[in-house]
Design brief:
alpha/beta, 9-stranded mixed β-sheet, 14 strands, 22% strand, globular
């Protein structure tokens, strides 16, 4: 396709954290342009977002149904829809767009619950359109380098995986402050689903563990808890994992770890060494060998593998961060639409697995069930 893909966004208006990130990431490489949208249910906020982002007034719509119908009727209508709403709207918007002949890229998790995710998988298959999820951290060059290292067998057989995603911003009941939009919807089961912390950041930890190791989690033992009194959803999670080849794992997700900022950290240990990547130092990957000196690999280095080099924009020593990683997912998606690859963009299968992880862990913890099977494939 010689022209940029035309994108509509649903959600992401004033007060949103992730909406502006999606817009910047989508447009970073010039492959996609935001041309239409429904940015807010509030008409004034909807119009303001459009004006701020250069969207023509006649391409700002009151709801996604009106948008899809109008854009399909245009010769210059959009090619894809970006879904950046709270979780409870993900299914309806994604399903309507796919049935309307549009590609969809959605913020995670895929849907409000597992049943919706499985139904959406059927809709994706029937539509013939592309669908992707912004599991952003898989877009970092050094995360893709870690994946290649494990896949080559450099560490030997994987034995242990430790992934932690700790935040402290919900250490207080911010959802009771009517002005805190980000906290209020995340703590509301009607908008967030059965998982709070585990559905917000736990799915990121789960996804990156499977992405880097290339292995599926088969069983889990979960302790999913609510620490702040009166909160409706979990805010702290500790989950033991067993992978398909026998490797053991530990997943920690917390939003009440006071003082923690955005502490995503992954370690993978094999027979001969282990690697560690941290989101707060994303351009570095450390490998600690059992019988050799440690190595520190840097983003942009000519010694890195093809997957890392393909998503690196700057020479080594010039830091790239969250927006660029997000943009790599969008670029992968654009490549997939153009028939040029894009296989590393997380798809609906990853969305189904994420929802299966959330629901299974929450239920197992509630029932004190101990070790349970994780069955997370699309039907």
């Amino acid at each position: 396709m010689s022209r940029p893909l035309r994108m509509a966004m649903v959600g992401g208006g004033p007060g949103s954290f992730i909406g502006p990130v999606h817009r910047m990431a989508a447009e970073l490489d010039g492959r996609i342009r935001l041309t239409a949208g429904v940015f807010s249910r509030d008409p004034a906020k909807n119009a303001k977002a459009a004006a701020d982002w250069g969207v023509a007034p006649d391409r700002v719509y009151p709801d996604h149904h009106a948008m899809i119908a109008a854009e399909r009727a245009r010769d210059d209508g959009v090619d894809l829809v970006s879904v950046v709403t709270p979780n409870h709207l993900h299914f309806d918007v994604s399903a309507a767009a796919l049935r309307g002949g549009l590609h969809v890229i959605s913020d995670k998790p895929a849907t409000l619950n597992l049943a919706q995710a499985q139904e959406l998988a059927d809709i994706v298959a029937a539509s013939g359109k592309h669908y992707a999820l912004t599991y952003t951290y898989t877009g970092y060059p050094m995360v893709r380098e870690a994946r290649e290292i494990v896949a080559r067998g450099d560490l030997g057989a994987v034995r242990k995986v430790v992934v932690e995603y700790s935040q402290g911003w919900l250490s207080k009941p911010l959802e009771r402050d009517g002005d805190n939009k980000q906290a209020s919807w995340r703590a509301d089961p009607a908008q967030s689903g059965v998982g709070g912390c585990i559905g917000d950041i736990g799915v990121h930890a789960f996804n990156i563990a499977e992405f880097v190791t290339g292995r599926r989690v088969e069983r889990l033992c979960a302790d999913v808890s609510t620490v702040v009194p009166g909160r409706s959803l979990d805010d702290d999670c500790n989950v033991l994992l067993r992978f398909e080849d026998g490797a053991r794992g530990v997943l920690i997700a917390s939003q009440i770890s006071a003082g923690a900022r955005n502490g995503l950290r992954l370690s993978v240990y094999g027979e001969t060494g282990g690697l560690t990547w941290s989101h707060e130092a994303p351009n570095v990957l450390t490998i600690d060998w059992l019988d050799a000196p440690s190595q520190v690999l840097h983003a942009g280095g000519g010694y890195l593998g093809a997957a890392a080099r393909a998503v690196t924009r700057l020479p080594t020593g010039h830091p790239e961060g969250f927006i660029e990683a997000f943009a790599n997912i969008y670029r992968d998606f654009a490549d997939a639409i153009a028939g040029q690859g894009g296989r590393l963009a997380p798809d609906i299968a990853e969305g189904v697995r994420g929802m299966a992880f959330v629901e299974r862990a929450v239920a197992a913890s509630r029932d004190d069930a101990g070790w349970v099977a994780l069955q997370g494939d699309a039907r």
